[in-house]
Each structure stands twice: as C-alpha cells, then as structure tokens.
Amino acid sequence: MSKITLRLRSDLQSPLDASSIRLDEWVQLSIEEIERFELRSQSGPVAIGDLFEVSVQSDVAMPRLVIDGCLRLVSGIGFQHKLGEIVCQSNVGDHAGSCMLGGRIVVHGNAGDHLGSPMGSRNVGMNGGQLIVNGSAGDDAGHRMRRGELWIDGDVGTRLATWQVAGTIGVAGNVGPNIAYGMRRGTLIFGRQPTLDANRFSTPIPLRSAFVSLLGRNCQASWLTPEFLKSLRVCRGDRQIDGRGEIWMP
C-alpha cells in the first residue's frame, strides 16, 4: 500500500477538475507516472507535476492520498472514491465526494456545493463510505444519497438531503431551507433545531432507538455526546411521497 502526498506549489488562479483521480488506481503508479497524470482546467490539460510536488511512501496500512494547499478552486475531489482514505488539508470546491462508493474522505476546512451528490448525468449521489467535513458545506449536500455516512461539523446551505434514499447525514450547525424535500428513507441528525415543512414531516416525539447507543460509541462526530443523544427527538417524512426517512433533532 502507498501514501501519496500532493503539495500545491502555489495558489491556483483558475478552476481545476480533479474528478479523474482514482486512489485505487494511483497506488499502482510511480511518482513519475503520477506527475505526468493530466487534469482538466480552463486552459486545457495540465500535468499534476506542474501544479503539485508529489511524494510517495510505501508500506503503509491502507491506501492514502493527502492533498495539501488551498483547494477552493478544485472540484470533484473523491469522485467515485471507493478504497482507502483521501485527506484534504484545506477548503475544497464543488462536488467533493460525488458518487462516492466506499473508503473515507476527510476535509479539514469548508466544502463547496453538491457535497456527496450526483455529478454529470448520474442520478445517484453518495453510495457508500464515510465523508467528513470539519467546516461548513454549500448547497445541495447529500442530494440523492443512497448509502454511507456524511458528517458536517459546521453549517450547510439550502436543499440538504433532497431525494435522499438511505444513508446517514449529520450536521452540527445551522441548515438552510428546503431540507429533505422528497426524502424516502435514511437518517438526518441535527445538532441544532432545523426548520422543517410541517406538511412534509410529522410532529417530533422522543427518540427511542437501539441505534443511538451504537452511534455514540462508533461515530467520530465529537458533538454527539451522550447527553446530546439522550435529548434527541424524531420526526418522519417526507409524507408527501410516503417517505419513511427519520430526522433526529434536539
């Protein structure tokens, strides 16, 4: 197994599309091959080695990609990611973790729009794995999510978890309007009281679930303290489409 580190040589001046990076394929490449790997940019293809310093460490426990430097203009990081861990040491752009299938992505900063959502012509968003954002996220996070876990320590924009099919999303901060429109199943966990459409979601009642204690033991979200978990209430919806999703809130 290999740990690959990309260190940005200087701040990017225009958007960069990183959706072609596949960690499960990159672990088979040499440093020279990674440096020659091309990404799409506004000015045309650009080689990784022209933008990043590349280093590789062998004999690690699992495949790992660490990206260091401001990635605010980089979209599609972790697209269809399925094996190992991707760690971004700063803010990232749109579509981080889109169509993710497995493994883990950690963002030490904020994420743009469409976090863990579909991209292009695909109609399924995050479909496995664990996506963790230590900061806030933009609009349309968790759209059409089917499996996996999405944890956000900060705030989230509008249209969180629209048409969610399954999976778990946790948000510690504030959430914008149009939450869980068209939600079918799955679980949303909020650290603060959200504003929900009363026509779409049932009246909250005290939460009684064996899953709560398991969540407290296994989840890495520091805001899910034992005291907080005991205070949770639950409502269900989206009733307009006979949805059976659950929203947990204090």
From TrEMBL:
<protein>
    <submittedName>
        <fullName>Formylmethanofuran dehydrogenase subunit C</fullName>
    </submittedName>
</protein>
<dbReference type="InterPro" id="IPR036485">
    <property type="entry name" value="Glu_synth_asu_C_sf"/>
</dbReference>
<dbReference type="InterPro" id="IPR017550">
    <property type="entry name" value="Formylmethanofuran_DH_suC"/>
</dbReference>
<dbReference type="GO" id="GO:0046914">
    <property type="term" value="F:transition metal ion binding"/>
</dbReference>
<dbReference type="GO" id="GO:0015948">
    <property type="term" value="P:methanogenesis"/>
</dbReference>
<dbReference type="GO" id="GO:0018493">
    <property type="term" value="F:formylmethanofuran dehydrogenase activity"/>
</dbReference>
